[in-house]
Amino acid sequence: MAEASIYEIHDPRFRQMIVTSAGLDELYSGCRWAEGPVWFNDANQLLWSDIPNQRMLRWTPENGVSVYRQPSNFTNGHTRDRQGRLISCEHGTRRVTRTEVDGSITVLADRFEGARLNSPNDVVVKSDGSIWFTDPTYGIMSDYEGFRAEPEQATRNVYRLDPTTGALAAVVTDFTQPNGLAFSPDETILYVADSAASHDESLPRHIRAFDVIDGIRLTNGRVFCLIDKGIPDGIRTDVNGNLWSSAADGVHCFDPTGKLIGKIRVPQTVANLTFGGPQRNRLFIAATRSVYSVYVAVSGAQVP
């Protein structure tokens, strides 16, 4: 039986969303900063980034952990497009890329209005094929997660890449440090984390919500929730519209109104998470040096 202490119940609804007999499993330890987990159901594998070690790792239930790509250009966040291809944010090259079926790399975005991007961080793909990503400065602040450099962009933006024309548009420009992002299940809301408190505690540690207009514009930006321990980094939604966020003490779960309903405690600071497994009911958690998993009683909204 799992120890009840890994769960923190703030609302009775959270009890229906967890499996108390399912423990927190450590799948791997040995990263410097684990990030960007993405699940491939068709390959029964999890990929994630170990940013400072310049590598991407792969886990399968049958074979455990192996190196997927090294060097990785200090790759951070990942997702898949609707064709199942890997979309990645690279700090080192300051670009967003797609890994083709044959393993070749296609550059999707590396500049905006003629200037280099800061350091693309996290990425999601909408059902229309558009690619949305955040561009804080974490990868150019030091040589630990990228290469130190002065930003060429005046602001730290959220971008939308048009799937047909390849045009890049800045859809939000007033973030301090935009980080993880996730659509609501019906794609009418985009949630974006601001993790600026990572380097200055007086700066934001909240998740904002935006209404998606015509599939291309964002409006009505508002604070959705605050993280009371650490900062929000990676975020995901489940099929019922609840939002699951990384935090210093584990994974926090918020209902669609922004109310904290529960936490799953994790021994290390959590950077990112994703739903996976055949039923998308296994939460994979990238937490500092390790990757953990825990089964839950809900399924993730992200596809494929």
TrEMBL record:
<dbReference type="InterPro" id="IPR005511">
    <property type="entry name" value="SMP-30"/>
</dbReference>
<dbReference type="InterPro" id="IPR051262">
    <property type="entry name" value="SMP-30/CGR1_Lactonase"/>
</dbReference>
<protein>
    <submittedName>
        <fullName>SMP-30/gluconolactonase/LRE family protein</fullName>
    </submittedName>
</protein>
<dbReference type="Pfam" id="PF08450">
    <property type="entry name" value="SGL"/>
</dbReference>
<dbReference type="InterPro" id="IPR013658">
    <property type="entry name" value="SGL"/>
</dbReference>
<feature type="domain" description="SMP-30/Gluconolactonase/LRE-like region">
    <location>
        <begin position="33"/>
        <end position="288"/>
    </location>
</feature>
<dbReference type="InterPro" id="IPR011042">
    <property type="entry name" value="6-blade_b-propeller_TolB-like"/>
</dbReference>
<keyword id="KW-0378">Hydrolase</keyword>
